[in-house]
Amino acid sequence: QVQLIESGGGLVQPGGSLRLSCAPSGRTFSTSTMGWFRQAPGEEREFVASMTWISGYRYFPRYANSVRGRFTISRENVKNTVSLQMGNLKPEDTGVYYCAAALGSDVTSTSAQDWDYWGQGTQVTVSS
I want to staple 96 with a disulfide (CB 3.0 to 4.6 A). Which of 6, 16, 62, 121 is the partner? Predict the structure, then answer.
């Protein structure tokens, strides 16, 4: 059974930082697209960042405009993990953050319905 297990959420003050990690189990996603989405109460799940496998030899990051310059996505193939370093957090970053995987190597869709696997989610709350 394939699982994506997130960790690292919590409560942080505006301007603070958090790091989320996602550890897949059940299969490897080394040449698949992996990323993060988030969902605020009453809102749809929205794309945050992704890392795709380009040209068979390197990863390429993509970001939502709302987080570009503040968040950094990274992958570590040895541990088969993907992380999201979040900085200069704002109250509007509050929500449940989900790790996601798509079987294609270069999936550029930011629509949640086009992704194949999901974690259970981890809560991030930005508040003073």
Answer: 121
Write the DSSP symbol of residue 110: -
**pLDDT tens figures, 91-110:** 999 999 999 999 888 888 99
User: Is the Cα torsion angle 48, 80, 61, 110 positive or negative in sign?
Assistant: negative
Burial of 44 (C-beta count, 10 Å sphere; 0-12/13-18/19+): exposed
Name the token pair of 28: 């490897």
How would you classify the pairing of strands 33-39 and 46-54?
antiparallel
The residues, any chain, with a CB within 8 Å of residue 77's CB and separated by 6 or more, are 30
Strand 10-12, strand 122-126: pairing: parallel
7 pairs with which residues across the strands?
21
CA distances from 100 to 8, 64, 107, 114, 122 (A): 15, 15, 12, 10, 12
Terminal-residue alpha carbon distance, the chain: 40
8 A C-beta contact, residue 60 and residue 123: no
